[in-house]
Amino acid sequence: MFKNEDAGTKAEQTRALIREVALASFRERGFDATTMRQVAKDAGASLGNAYYYFPTKNHLVQELYVEVQEEHRAAAAPRLAETDDLIERLGAVFRTGLAQLAPFHDYAAGFLTAMVAPNSPLNPMSPESEPARSMIVGLFREALDGARQSLPPDLAVRMPHALWLAHLLMSLFWSYDRSPGQRNTVRLVDTALRLFRAALPFLRVPVVRAPLRTLLDLAAGVGA
What we know:
With 224 residues, the chain is mainly α.
């Protein structure tokens, strides 16, 4: 019994170490330069052992996705606690999300190449990416639910997924942004939020609300 428990603990420790080494390598070397062989070597494990816990490098990237979103949630939580203003809360989610990507900016091209193929398991809209996707959609839902300005119920239930897609587009813009500190992306986020604030009063107007609901339904079909 104790031997089995020890074996289980050792296996968990080995898996955790391989994961930790791989995530550090993604941050320091990028996607292309991180290989399963190098990860196994740095972790002091055999290549076969590394493949046992993570059959492909893609599985390790999914671990990275989840870790980044966990850090995103941790960074956004205190910002959300400071305000009940809808636009400020959404801004907190967008800005802290982009901040978590900062260590990867120099390596963005390698990750993008692996992510853009529609059938790639690394595509943010793929079934494999669902855990990380659910986390950020949930964070946007939390931002909406805690705001003093409420959206019409039919729009509120559809909005988190659309905001996640907006975050993806912001992230894509950010990956190509070579301005100092990616300040052009910051300006884009600020401008989009100002436009959203200006549009809020019109979201209850039937002539605006109906086509917007249709648009949000179309957005909901992406990555669903």
